[in-house]
Amino acid sequence: MLDKEKEDRELCDCIEKMEKLFLYDTITLLDCVLTDDPDDPEYSANMAYSRLETVMKFQSLYFGEKTNDVASFMLKEGYTQDDVDLFMAKRIDEDRRHGYN
Questions:
Q1: What is the DSSP letter of 68?
Q2: Fewer CB within 10 A of the end CB, N or C, for the chain?
């Protein structure tokens, strides 16, 4: 039985490490989106948004940490309201560029 408990703990540790790495990469992507050239962007605001939603869903299911929306998550992580507004505007612009709206 002890081996099973050890395996479970190791699995939990691994999952938590993967979440931290995914979150780090997602925050890095978000920072790139926020500083990207508005006329010729290289990074996808919508991909960053989707990844943030995935982080929030995981944190809710695994850790019980509830966040209402991506904007609230960003503010909790230390971003400003101006950052949030810029990020949402970049998502709209990306949709427009790709003909989604």
A1: S
A2: N
Residue matched to tokens 């944190």 = 59
Identify the CA nearest to 75 among candidates 65, 83, 86: 83
CB 26 within 8 A of CB 73: no
User: Within 13 Å of residue 4, how many CA atoms lie on the same side as its CB?
Assistant: 1
Q: Which two tokens stand for residue 9?
A: 């703990």
The Cα diameter of the chain in Å comes to 59
As a whole number of angstroms, the distance between CA 31 and CA 58 comes to 21
Q: Kindly report whether the global pTM for this prediction surpasses the value 0.85.
A: yes
The whole-angstrom separation of Cα 9 and Cα 15 is 10
pLDDT, tens digit, for every residue of 15-42?
999 999 999 999 999 999 999 999 999 9
